[in-house]
Amino acid sequence: SLFCPAHPPHHCFARLCSSFAMPKSKRNKVIALTKVKKKPRETKDKAIEEIRGACEKFGRVYLLSIENERTAALQVVRQKLRPGRLFCSKNKVIQVALGTSPSTECQDGVHQIANMISDKCGLLFSDTPPAEIQSFFAEYRPSDFARAGATATSTVVLAKGVDTLSKMPHSIEAHLRQLGMPTRLIEGKIHLLGDHTVCKEGEELSADAAQILKLMEIKMAEFTVTVSAHWCKSTGALVDCEELED
């Protein structure tokens, strides 16, 4: 019998049903769109196609050397130099798109600029004359907070006392101690118990030093772009940056 005298019938029926419970379906799992990644091959192919399209559309290609790259600064460059196109894809992708030999190049002579690509660089496709491009980058050099590993441009020493950290909330005092600063919270104010050298000019910034400089709102990085070379579609010639002319 399914029922026993010790338990009411409805209790036994509930136990019977639970023993035949179906496992949870895995089909109805919700996957956040942020976890769905494009296939690397699709991303590369799209970049190659866009670079080749820009090379066909514009009359000039500028090879740019970029230091202290920042997303916000690159966005400004893109806005200011429209309708030109700026690409900062992986070097190998750019080289494949342009072609590295006369037999594989997408435009006559453009393989010359592909073979100059190295380190952190970008490609600017534009019809704007070289003098204007160089002038723009000579003037646009925004400052930003340096990151760990960058070279300190000056020596920073924070003076002992309460005034140095007076603008900071008392809640950050424990974090400052974790960054190596000799601090103490006294009557709701952060006291620096001794002079503290954050960094020395010419030396590499540690992760802690970079954080302290940011908290102190001291900027040591400068976003700079240098035009290394220029290719002109009408002539198919590559011009070194020192020889750039209209």
TrEMBL record:
<dbReference type="GO" id="GO:0006364">
    <property type="term" value="P:rRNA processing"/>
</dbReference>
<dbReference type="InterPro" id="IPR001790">
    <property type="entry name" value="Ribosomal_uL10"/>
</dbReference>
<dbReference type="GO" id="GO:0005737">
    <property type="term" value="C:cytoplasm"/>
</dbReference>
<dbReference type="GO" id="GO:0000027">
    <property type="term" value="P:ribosomal large subunit assembly"/>
</dbReference>
<dbReference type="InterPro" id="IPR040637">
    <property type="entry name" value="Ribosomal_uL10-like_insert"/>
</dbReference>
<dbReference type="GO" id="GO:0030687">
    <property type="term" value="C:preribosome, large subunit precursor"/>
</dbReference>
<feature type="domain" description="Large ribosomal subunit protein uL10-like insertion">
    <location>
        <begin position="146"/>
        <end position="218"/>
    </location>
</feature>
<keyword id="KW-0963">Cytoplasm</keyword>
<dbReference type="Pfam" id="PF00466">
    <property type="entry name" value="Ribosomal_L10"/>
</dbReference>
<dbReference type="InterPro" id="IPR033867">
    <property type="entry name" value="Mrt4"/>
</dbReference>
<dbReference type="GO" id="GO:0000956">
    <property type="term" value="P:nuclear-transcribed mRNA catabolic process"/>
</dbReference>
<dbReference type="InterPro" id="IPR043164">
    <property type="entry name" value="Ribosomal_uL10-like_insert_sf"/>
</dbReference>
<dbReference type="Pfam" id="PF17777">
    <property type="entry name" value="RL10P_insert"/>
</dbReference>
<dbReference type="GO" id="GO:0005730">
    <property type="term" value="C:nucleolus"/>
</dbReference>
<comment type="function">
    <text>Component of the ribosome assembly machinery. Nuclear paralog of the ribosomal protein P0, it binds pre-60S subunits at an early stage of assembly in the nucleolus, and is replaced by P0 in cytoplasmic pre-60S subunits and mature 80S ribosomes.</text>
</comment>
<dbReference type="InterPro" id="IPR051742">
    <property type="entry name" value="Ribosome_Assembly_uL10"/>
</dbReference>
<dbReference type="InterPro" id="IPR043141">
    <property type="entry name" value="Ribosomal_uL10-like_sf"/>
</dbReference>
<keyword id="KW-0690">Ribosome biogenesis</keyword>
<comment type="subunit">
    <text>Associates with the pre-60S ribosomal particle.</text>
</comment>
<protein>
    <recommendedName>
        <fullName>Ribosome assembly factor mrt4</fullName>
    </recommendedName>
</protein>
<keyword id="KW-0539">Nucleus</keyword>
<comment type="similarity">
    <text>Belongs to the universal ribosomal protein uL10 family.</text>
</comment>
<dbReference type="GO" id="GO:0003723">
    <property type="term" value="F:RNA binding"/>
</dbReference>
